[in-house]
Amino acid sequence: MNQQRHSPDIALAVFTAVGVTAGVILSLGFDEDYLVGLCGVGRKISLAGGGNWFAVFMSSFGGSAILLGAAFLLGFSAIAQPAELLLVGFRGLGLGLCVRGVYLGGNVLSSMAAFLPFAVFSTAVLILSAREAFYLSQRYLALSTTDENRLGIRSQVRDYSARFMIYFLLLAVLAAGDTFLAGVLASA
């Protein structure tokens, strides 16, 4: 039973790593200026330097929140486990594409400081949320294939929803930290 409990964690980590690797490999075929623009570090620091904090916050929070919302919805499907794995793989693919852009842009240390903290921590939140979605999805699959009592699912859905609210709040805090960091880097 313990072995089964850890299998989604390993699979989610592997899919994320494979996505990052695939993104880096794919980025070799892209134009360097396009990759620098895709990573968005220069734009983020420029917006923060201009005092447009809300735009910086929304650029950090928006894309990650959409992926988190997708993970939330996938948890309600009995057959969504492959999609949950692909979701974190897709996130990894995007990170892999952006990583090369960070290195190609000027001032690598400043670019890494503006990109990596939020990218790593928001990906960790996405992996945790995908794990929650994976478990609820497995529960729905088990309920659909047995005559098991379905009364307990209500409390599981309530707990699931509460955990996702925490994940959304955590993501908002991370985006606010990313905004603050971009402001610090813009003034340096």
Explain this structure.
- There is one protein chain.
- The chain is an all-alpha fold.
- About 85% of the residues lie in helices and about 0% in strands.
- The longest helix has about 40 residues, at about 110-145.
- The chain is elongated.
List the helices and strands and how they pair.
Blueprint: H1 2-27, H2 32-39, H3 41-49, H4 53-74, H5 81-104, H6 108-145, H7 153-187
Question: Short description, anyone?
Answer:
The protein is mostly helical.
Radius of gyration: 19 Å
Counted beta strands: 0
What overall geometry do the principal axes of the alpha carbons give?
elongated
* Distance between the amino and carboxyl termini: 52 Å
* Mean pLDDT rating: 91
Low-confidence region ranges? none
How many alpha or pi helices? 7
- Biggest sheet, open or closed, and with what strands and sense? none
Oligomer: single chain
| Secondary-structure-derived class | mainly alpha
Order of helices and strands: HHHHHHH
Instruction: Indicate the proportion of strand residues.
Output: under 5%
| Helical amount | over 70%
List descriptors.
mainly alpha, 7 helices, 86% helix, 0% strand
